[in-house]
Design a protein that fits this description.
single chain; 10 helices; mainly alpha; about 0% strand; GPCR_Rhodpsn_7TM
């Protein structure tokens, strides 16, 4: 998922920089957006499931192998692919409904869904409502699960009497927590911040953070 997520934008960016080209075809833009959303949603779902896995490992260690059995892991994997395909195709269907564009310049280094869908010169109120609903379901719900998991993890770890035991417990989820903060922090900063006040340079830096650095 990480390799696919990064590969949807960075190779094209490198080619554009080397050849001094900043143009992409309409079909190419839709394909890039579809692949970007597919692997981005997979990343989002998998990060949430990894938080749940760490919650079970730390809060219910004796039942970890029973709860996180291979069958459940396969179901989780299929769920992440299904969510990615669903959201990706939804954005594609919405983009294909556009009959005209008010401006063909995208203030980003890739076909960012939020920028692309704002280019329509037709009424986009219904589209905006639908996207906000899906954004709430596939954005805030995973975020809430992750926050709740780490709340329970921290509560459990703080009850461990020894400092070494606390460190060992925290070390198992340190890398995951840092990626979660970077991924969600820059994503929410980009997409929620753009509705209030958007700066192209700040948006591009935030986009680089969650597409490359994570």
């Amino acid at each position: 998922a990480d390799i696919g997520f990064t590969s949807s934008t960075i190779p094209r960016l490198i080619v554009d920089i080397l050849n001094h080209i900043s143009v992409i075809s309409y079909v190419g833009c839709l394909i890039q957006m579809s692949v970007f959303i597919l692997f981005g949603c997979m990343d989002n779902t998998l990060l949430t499931l990894m938080a749940y896995d760490r919650f079970v490992a730390i809060c219910h260690p004796l039942h970890h192998s029973t709860i996180m059995n291979p069958r459940l892991c396969v179901l989780f994997l299929l769920l992440s692919v299904f969510v990615g395909l669903l959201v990706s195709q939804l954005h594609n269907l919405i983009a294909l409904q556009f009959t005209c564009f008010k401006d063909v310049k995208i203030a980003s280094f890739f076909c960012d869904p939020s920028h692309l869908l704002n280019l329509s010169c037709s009424d986009t109120i219904i589209i905006t409502v639908v996207l906000y609903i899906f954004g709430t379901i596939f954005g805030l719900v995973p975020m809430s699960v992750t926050v709740f998991s780490y709340y329970k993890i921290i509560s459990t770890v703080m009850k461990i009497p020894s400092l070494g035991g606390r460190y060992k417990a925290f070390s198992t989820c340190g890398s995951h927590l840092s990626v979660v903060c970077l991924f969600y922090g820059t994503c929410f900063g980009t997409y929620l911040g753009s509705t209030v006040s958007y700066s192209p340079s700040t948006g591009e830096v935030a986009s680089l953070m969650y597409t490359v650095v994570t």
